[in-house]
What we know:
By secondary structure, the chain is an alpha/beta fold. It has helices at residues 36-48, 122-125, 128-142, 144-165, 172-214, 234-240, 242-248, 269-272, 275-297, 314-323, 342-346, and strands spanning 2-11, 14-20, 25-29, 67-75, 80-88, 91-96, 99-100, 113-116, 221-226, 259-264, 267-268, 302-306, 330-334, 349-352. Helices cover 42% and strands 22% of the residues.
Amino acid sequence: MMIQNIKSWNFRNFTRSTHVFSEGINIICGDNATGKTSLLEQIYVLCLTKSHRAKKDIEMIKLGSDFLVLKGSFVSPVKSIDLQLSLSDKGKIAKIGTKEVKNLSSYIGVVNVVLFCPEDLLIVKGSPGDRRKFLDVEMGQISPNYLRDLIEYKDLIKQRNALLKDFSSTTPKNKTLLDVLDEKIVLVGIKIIQARTKFLNMLNQIAVDKMTAISRNNETLRIVYKQNVAVEQFSETLKQSLESDLAKGSTSVGPHRDDFVIEINDQDVSLFGSQGQQRSSVLALKFSLLQLISNVKKEMPILLLDDVFSELDEYRQNEILKLINKGVQTFITTTTINEIDKEILNKSNLIYLTKENGNER
């Protein structure tokens, strides 16, 4: 799948913008603050309905406006699709063609994207929540069932936490409701744990080769899933945690407390890896994701690489460029084209952005 064009209204600092792309590699070059990252963000948001940069959706709406709209045209050898996403204080409206989609779980994954950006270093150096976000976003692209299970699970945990804060053991209905919630949490939680286990196992198998290529056979990569609770012990552990959960007013057991660790040469890269190794490990993860989505969906995602060459030596930069498979529409942002391989450069579509021509205000 590739994107032919994208149009925006009231997206961040710009009143409107239009950009047309080519298949293959699109290199977006320009100084800082010319809109390179915002252009990639538009593609990402249109496909996944959420930004990788904004904590709140409203942050993407131009100051002084009360809505934003994104429209894009996509094609593959077998189909063409128009997507539209509107955002306001009333919520989101997503359309495939002219038809409004009732559930976003049916919209996400229609067009797949893989993004690498500086914020992705949080996968290595950030909190367990940052790593769970990575799992949930990427798994949601390839599995609507996972996304629906996740939405249901989060709602159940929210209900349980509310009950814990207002729990009275002298009220029989509270205990009955807690038992019902716990049973549902275990059933849905187990499906999430099993799905994450399968996903990380598949990702692991691919990531080994990607890291080997990037590191010139010097480094091996392994992803270690740190389950908060074992499937077979989930129900009992949840019951045993009741007293402490009541004291805290929150649920301490379940996949909402999961984590994973990335190891290079059997060492936690967040603790012992250099900046280059940390960045390379995330890139290996992202290129593995690209192949995994292609294997599952039988269609290549769009690849977005924002500021990908920072802090990488020339060899690793060139190896990354070689990993860009034929048939993958790729977007690369950079402040200069001098460090890009000439052979790649000659085959690419160059988009030069300036503060004057980057977007129409």
